[in-house]
Amino acid sequence: MGFDTDDFKAKPVIGILNTWSDLNNCHTHFRDRAEEVKRGVWQAGGFPVEIPIMTLSESFMKPTSMYYRNLVALEVEETMRCYPLDGVVLMGGCDKTVPSLIMGATSANLPAIFLPAGPMLKGCWRGNILGSGTDMWKYWAERQAGNLCGESWNELEDSIARSPGTCMTMGTASTMAAVTEALGLCLPGASSIPAVHSTHARMATACGRRIVELAWDKTNIRDLLTEDAFHNAVVTDMALGGSTNAIVHLIAMAGRAGVELTIDRFDEISAQVPVIANIRPCGDYLMEDFYDAGGLLGLFSRIREHLKLDCLNVSGKTLGEAIEGAEVFDDDVIRSLDRSVSKAGGTFVLRGNLAPNGAVIKPTAAEERLLKHRGTAAVFKNYADLKARIDDPALGLTPDHVIVLQNAGPIGAGMPEWGMLPIPKYLLEQGVRDMLRISDARMSGTSYGACVLHVSPEAAIGGPLALVRDGDQIEVDVEARKLHLDVSDEELEDRRSAWQPPEKKFARGYGRLYHEEITQAHEGCDFRFLHAGPDAPEPDIF
Q: Quick one: three-class SS letters along 360-390?
């Protein structure tokens, strides 16, 4: 039987943008899932083409992971523009792959559907349920304090990640998968399914079938990414007690869609929507429990009044239709609004003379005594300085000190996940497990502690954070959204006049080429020259 080229042209060509890697535990099951997607594409009459997309684990690429997010977005956009594709399935999960795939797809603006990797199964060690990331930080503190031997630590490492999939806590990966579903880019209910669950394979096939229909209908990704859709994403983030990284990523994603989303919008919604997902690091349970309790659709059913229910999603339904009949099966895992985990949303935005453009904190993951605190600053000029001196008893740090890290922002260091600054070992040995810590860095969504992050403007461009000195008094009042450096305006002006910018250098990677084009934290840390609205014209090709 001969090959009929006309028949080939009649089939929508579907790109399966796969971030599979044997070295990235979040995605090791994507080799099989891609075959499930292909099956669905063939079933619906499409022509699947699998296209590999760069994938790297966050833990392997510090400090350049935010630049990696932008680089993958560039790769995805050019891949979609350069191949003859009619639609794409975006396969991602590890926290940077989710926003990067969506940012690139939004710039290219073809029909797209997102296939989330799903969380791994929960771990267990000596009768203790383990959550990846969160419990790693917890037990590492015990190890540093001398309370956990090497053999026990090795056992814990063997027990904490027992299947493929993303962190099963409400870290950045779980947060971004959920907000992507809230944006309308996932099939309803897809974001909560554990990676190795049989339902996950069926969902992959359903994604393959549905993208063909979207391609025929020419429903492009920007048709779904409306202002109301981003409202739903922020509401979801707050109700979940989501990662602080969601703020940076959602602002960057909105910028690609031509939607204005500011850091203040997160704080406005935080004041209205409390955390109702009782998931670590803010709560007690893990993502597997969340799925069994009703998953994201169950959570949506409890925050209906805060959602824009008319928003369309990739299934062709509205959000209101998608959650019709959704139930919650465990009221402790997914709380009602009147029994919420916290009185307000997961993240707050702080402002003051130390952060004129804002900073963020996750109060539900901090010790309450530190949410209204005044302390003496101990300043570290960069991460190397911090690592070299933090454990030196001669510094005389106490639990009431405020640890300040400079030059870890987008331009200073690529904004790595350094924001969960270490507590000195000698204080860990005394039983201290939280201190107020301030930086222009990010931190892992699985982390916890009284960490003020994303301070903007950052120190490397002369923001007030660069002017803090040892011995200064810093005041934080989370309820009042206040971050204040108790130094007179005149003194600050004198310090600003004497300030010299740090040498701009990157030890590796493309950050050294593009760092001057990166926006600040409150603007999403995207490349400035890629911020474009939906009507941006195609460039001339010579």
A: EECHHHCCHHHCEEEEEEEEECCHHHHHHHC
Task: Kindly state the tokens that stand for 97.
Answer: 């792959």
In the chain, the N- to C-terminal Cα span, in Å, equals 41
398-420 per-residue burial string, b: 16 or more CB within 10 A, e: under 16: ebebbbbbbbbbbbbbbbbbbbb
| CA nearest to 416, candidates 63, 109, 134 | 63
Strands 451-456 and 372-380: unpaired
CA dihedral (247, 249, 252, 256) positive or negative = negative
pLDDT-derived band at 63 (thresholds 50, 70, 90) equals confident
pLDDT, tens digit (0-9, with 9 covering 90-100), for 222-235: 999 999 999 999 99
pLDDT of residue 542: 45
Q: Is 440 helix (H, G, I), strand (E, B) or coil?
A: coil
Q: What is the pTM of this model?
A: 0.94
Mean pLDDT of 332-345: 95
**What's the CA dihedral at 266, 183, 228, 361 to 10 degrees?**
0
Count, residues in the chain = 542
The pLDDT assigned to 2 comes to 42
The CA distance from 160 to 210, in Å, is 35
The encoded tokens of residue 16 equal 């399966």
Q: Is the separation of the CB atoms in 459 and 465 below 8 Å?
A: yes
Closest CA to 91 of 166, 9, 5, 199: 166
Query: How many Å separate Cα 390 from the centre of its chain?
Result: 27
281 preceded by a cis bond (ω within 30 of 0): yes
3-state secondary structure of 332: coil
Written as six digits, the tokens of 369 are: 């005594």
Cβ of 369: how many Cβ atoms within 10 Å?
A: 12
CA-based torsion, 441, 451, 182, 27: positive or negative: positive
CB 275 within 8 A of CB 345: yes
Q: Provide the percentage of residues in the chain whose pLDDT is more than 90.
A: 86
The CA distance from 22 to 357, in Å, is 40
Nearest alpha-carbon partner for 58 in 165, 161, 173:
173
Which structural domains are found in the chain, ordered by start? 10-121+163-339 (3.40.50.2300), 123-159 (no CATH), 348-522 (3.50.30.80)
Contacts of 496 (CB under 8 A, 6+ apart): 462, 467
Which residues are bridge partners to 112 per DSSP? 88
Which among 329, 261, 341 has a CA at the least distance from the CA of 295?
329
> Residue 97 and residue 77: Cα distance in Å, rounded?
13
Q: Does residue 379 contact residue 468 with C-beta atoms inside 8 Å?
A: yes
Angle subtended by helix axes 295-302 and 227-240, to nearest 10: 100
- Mean pLDDT over the full length of the chain: 93
Q: 3-class SS at 116?
A: strand
